[in-house]
Amino acid sequence: MVLRGYVPTSEETLQTLAALRLQSLNSDFSTHAPFPRLEELFPPRVLHARLPPPRHRPPPKCRGARLRAGLLAGGLWGQALAKQRAERDQRLRGRLREEGASTMAAILEKWKLLQGMGRPEAMAAYVALVREWPGFGSTLFDVDLRVSALGAVPQRLWLGIGAKAVSLYKPGEPEPLDSFCYGRISSFGASDSSTFRLSVEDQDLLFETSQVDEIAQLLNTYLTSAGAQRPPRPQEPAATSPPAPPGPPQGLCPTPVSRPHRPPVGSFHS
């Protein structure tokens, strides 16, 4: 998750994590030590985020200009635009190499400072840094929120599945926008192959994602291990499900209450 960019922290901390990984793998710094590629130490998406966003040309407003642009697109102008795109891509690749070299140099400097640290100590320091994120232990999924009371839709978010709650994060932000304890979730499942539905009390959230099955299976695992009751099938009357206890203010989890284990019912897929 660190290498995929799913641990929101500073670049300084990410560089320290990379140095600790090197210390764990190779012990003290040495120019003769086997050296992993940068993408095996540092999240590539952080480097890509430093690059300037692509500039889009505004479409011509004049009808005659649009006609000329259409006629020339397949000829000389089309070739010129293709050349410009190739040159721009080459510049971006060069900039990416420069950013990568700068980051690698910073990681090496931090690695040199760890001389004498043993592998168990390096691993413990690595985990201690990652645990500083409040969402430590959650698995994050990229989703597009289609329906929500949180704001405009669609919205790109991280869906965090943890042992005690489901949380919504703005990508890169350490604190969740909202968290839903499993006691507040009335039902969930796959609306179709690319849409995951999550019903929280009186609101329905629809997420566009390519990992519908992975999300459902992980929720299933946590609910089963916790001995919680699964939600009813969508086609079953709502009365078949026991009423949920009154929920706390939105975004807060209630104090866990001991309850007898009940056999699971229903299905996670609609």
Per-chain topology:
Layout: H1 11-26, H2 44-50, H3 63-73, H4 76-112, H5 119-130, E1 139-147, E2 155-161, E3 165-169, E4 178-181, E5 185-192, E6 195-200, E7 203-208, H6 212-226
Antiparallel strand pairs: 1-2, 1-7, 2-3, 3-4, 5-6, 6-7
Helix pairs in contact: 1-4, 1-5
Walkthrough of the structure:
By secondary structure, this protein is α+β, with helices and mostly antiparallel strands. Among the domains are: 2-52 and 87-132, no CATH class; 139-229. The chain is 36% helix and 17% strand. Strands 4-3-2-1-7-6-5 form a seven-stranded antiparallel beta sheet, covered by helices on one side. A hairpin with a 2-residue loop joins strand 6 and strand 7. Helix 1 (11-26) crosses helix 4 (76-112). The longest helix has 37 residues, at 76-112. It is flat and about 55 Å long. The model is unreliable at 228-270 (pLDDT under 50).
Number of strands: 7
Determine Rg (CA atoms, Å). 25 Å
Beta-strand content estimate: 15-25%
Number of helical elements: 6
The profile of the biggest β sheet is: 7 strands, antiparallel
Termini, distance in Å? 30 Å
Strand order of the largest sheet: 4-3-2-1-7-6-5
Which sequence of SSEs, written as H and E, runs from N to C?
HHHHHEEEEEEEH
Tell me, rounded to a whole number, the average pLDDT.
Answer: 78
Class from secondary-structure proportions: alpha+beta
Share of residues in helices: 25-40%
Shape: flat
What assembly state would you assign to the polypeptide chains in this entry? single chain
Runs in which pLDDT lies below 50 for 5 or more consecutive residues are 228-270
Protein name: MYO10 protein
Pfam families: FERM_M, IRS
InterPro entries: Actin_motor_Myosin, FERM/acyl-CoA-bd_prot_sf, FERM_2, FERM_central, FERM_domain, IRS_PTB, PH-like_dom_sf
Organism: Pampusana beccarii (Western bronze ground-dove)
